[in-house]
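User: Fold this; tokens only.

Assistant: Input:
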Amino acid sequence: MDIIRQDFGDYATNSYLLKFDGFEFVVDPGYGSTEWILSQTSNLQAILVTHGHFDHIWDIASLRQKTKAKVYCPEQDSFMLESDCFNLGLTPCKADVYIENNESVASICINGINVNYWHFPGHTPGCSMIEIDNCFFSGDFIFHRSIGRYDFPYSSSSSMKYSLERFLLIDRDMVVYPGHGESTTVKAEQQVVPIWIRYIDS
């Protein structure tokens, strides 16, 4: 798997293009990403959503229309994809596959590629990290030395705390590609997550 990153929009939201043998996936196609994605792909098969915030899903409707790639979205964030709930002018779009949210890992197979959705709510109800080929695409759950905000509409501080506690239980190191900023690793962020848990408690 080859990974290409490009950030888009006022919030510098990372979109990730995953290239396999003969086809591609994209993770979180943000504002204005469609033309870049089309220029880099010839057989886009999947549009993977980490969570439903507008800066991560803005170009899904246009991209799906132009490529016919299937959209995979966490079930509890589907309402953000299907409606302009923040009144920003987003074009609504229904997912093709809704990923069931629970504390277990939801595993699906797309074109022979194993895709695991790890549900870590708090930033949004359906916020997830997507595991592919021993890498995590963490959306706005975990960043380099930081975590996602939990003071937005539909966010939850208690859910974020519980998700962070579960993150500490991951027992293998993996590269983490976040929704904003530079990449990091599971083990590196497990060193600082306890500080964030204490901050939520304060």
